[in-house]
Each structure stands twice: as C-alpha cells, then as structure tokens.
Amino acid sequence: MFRLNQKIALVTGAGSGIGEAVALTLAGAGASVWVVDRDSVTGQRTVDSIREAGGTAECAELDVADPDAATAFGTRLPPIDILVNNAGIGHVGNLLATTAADLDRLHAVNVRGPFNLCKALVPAMLVRRSGSVINLASIGGLVAVRDRLAYTATKHAVVGLTRALALDHSHTGVRFNAICPGRVETPFVRSRLAEYPDPEKGYREMASTQLNGRMARPDEIAAAALYLASDEAAMVTGSCLSIDGGWGAGK
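Below the sequence we write its predicted structure tokens.
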C-alpha cells in the first residue's frame, strides 16, 4: 500500500465528488490534507469525514480562478508536498451554443485555476527539490467530446500545461502528472440521472462511451492520485493517465 506519512497535501474542489474522494484517500494513506473548495460548508464536511476516520485535515475557502487570492493563500500555508488541482467546471454546447463568456468562464477555472495554484505553491517545491503536482484533466483532454467544445478545449489545455511543466522542470525533483477520467458517477452525475424519466436507461446511455459499460467511481480516480502522489511513482512525470473504461482506446 502506498503511504504518504509526514506529507502535506492540498486538494482543490475537495468538497464533493472526485476531489472529496482524493482528499479522503490521501488522508487515509497518512497525509495531512488541506481541503480547498469555494463552498466552505461542503469542504468542512470532507474535513469532518477525514477527522472521524482518524486523519488530519484543515478546510480553506478559495476561488481558484482568482490569482491574487491564490497567491495570498499560498503565503499562509506550510510547505506543500502534494498539490491536486481538481477544481473544474463544465459546459454543454457546440460552437453555436457556446459564447465567448462561456469559454472564458471555463478557462478561468479549468486552466487558470491550476496555473494559479502552481504559481503559488510550486516555487517552494522547486527550492526543496521535491513535490508531486497532479492535475485533473479528462478524456476530453485527449480526444474531442461531442457538444463539449469549451470543456474539451480547456481540458486539452490542462494536458498541455501538465506536459510543459514536466518538461520545464524535469531535473528538479518535482513531478507533474495529469489524470484523465472518462465519465465518473459523482453526486452531480447522480443528481442529473435522477431527473431522467428512466434513470437506469440514462445511466446506460451515459456509460455507453466506455467500453466496459459502466462509469468510474470517484474512489477509482482517487486511487490513481494516491499512486502519483507516492514515492513509488518517482519515475512518473509528464504522464497523462487515462481512467476511462476504454473510451479512448479506439480514438
């Protein structure tokens, strides 16, 4: 089992879904976790769950799209060993159904968010010559997803950001990797399915893009984050790990 004893991790968007699962998993492996979310109520719930399980966590409210807030936040933190840039948003629409404001909104969170946190926290990692940065991209960062123009564009940018960081800092001891999930059965997805006339049929339709016929669970994504955060992944940098049930296999 991968252990993160004596390490400090920070996970954005950790109030629910994949971010919550990542925070719980890293804490379960021994890390002290900063749970960061725009919603301090959901963030605190994650912290409470970690503490109830015997782990160590603190909650912080932050809009990752705000560069000044990210910089100020970074100055108040202890040295961070693991940064998981999970916070992200989506938009349904092709070119005709996507405005410039839609694209700017997604770019601010999905691309500038990871950039802002890296600017705030990675310089200290470089000084210490140690650290792991994990960016949550998407299968939409590797292949195009129909009717997700803005989302696809920004997640491709996350993949590019990750690879550029890994290349630029390849001899520093700091590693940069991305996780590219397919569809994941998060609370948000389950709430959407509940609105379908036939939720079971809706699930099958949403899962049909994945060759194994089901959506991933958040804990399955979190398991990959744990590996990438661990010392056992010391040779892994610049990688984009697909957890997509085979979605991208034939692309």
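The mean pLDDT is 96.
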